[in-house]
Amino acid sequence: MNPPAQSPAAAAPAPTTRPLRGQLGTYLGLAAVLIGMVVLFSSLSEYFFTAETFITIANEVPALTVMAVGMTFVLIIAGIDLSVGSVLALSAAVTAAAILQWKLAVPAAAALGLATGLLCGAITGAVSVAWRLPSFIVSLGMLEAVRGGAYLVTDSRTQYVGDAIAGLAAPWIGGVSSAFVLAVAIVIVGHLVLTRTVFGRHVVGIGTNEEAMRLAGIDPRPIRIAVFAVTGLLAGLGGLMQSARLEAADPNAGAGIELQVIAAVVIGGTSLMGGRGSVINTFFGVLIIAVLEAGLAQVGASEPAKRIITGAVIVAAVIIDTVRQRRAGAA
């Protein structure tokens, strides 16, 4: 006798949301780490605990923040995107070329830069889905290809756009740039999409049990492509933010920033194995990375020392995530 057919609702994984108390505990834990770092660096440097330091940090993190939001979704579906730094550079380069060489209006040039990021992300997602290739390999190839594109567009030279898009980095509230306000708004939107929409539930479901999603009649392929496309779009926005702050598009911009992005997401508690993550926690991770770098710079740490310490923090976050996963599996 054949077993009864399983309904789509029964087959679909029910992505579990953490109890409010558990979420609050995580927020408080990350906030405690952040405050502890501020206290530590304030005791080591008399210049750290100043409004100028915190405004500088706020104005330097928008690009990292928006890229980390996209990477949170990518890691939740058990993927990874190593090309975001190169996409940042290419999007900024296309925007600069559109303004300086093609004489497009600034809004049209910015839209073209964002579309470039969206296209790069969509290609990464489509190739990995169509040929069932690990996103690690595909995005690694895109990292090199897109970086080459940035060199071609800029003729391997920094393009100075001046104040054409500087409004995005202009001081707005208490010296904090409009880019930071926009980045915080994107964090809030990302959190709501992940926790309050069907798309967010599908993202978590794919990372938790992709086969169960298929049995529920939900095709994970377009969702995967959409996640990578949005991540590319946010990397493109990060390129605009960085160009606005520096008033230039550098083809070498964003080199290595993908490691900072992944570090911020992992420090925020998003699982490298997929199925679990929080955009709010990712924002805490971004702030922790930013405060760590600013504090180390102010206490006079050398560049090698800063890289060693930052790397140790990343490894510690991965170890904590692995221990957490094992305990959850044993429970």
From TrEMBL:
Keywords: Cell membrane, Membrane, Transmembrane, Transmembrane helix. It is a multi-pass membrane protein. The keyword Cell membrane applies. It holds the Pfam family BPD_transp_2. GO terms for molecular function: transmembrane transporter activity. The chain crosses the membrane at residues 27-49, 61-80, 86-104, 111-133, 172-194, 223-241, 279-299. One of its GO terms (cellular component) is plasma membrane. InterPro entries: ABC_transp_permease. The keyword Membrane applies. It is found in: Cell membrane. This is Monosaccharide ABC transporter membrane protein (CUT2 family). It comes from Pseudacidovorax intermedius. The lineage of its organism: Bacteria, Pseudomonadati, Pseudomonadota, Betaproteobacteria, Burkholderiales.
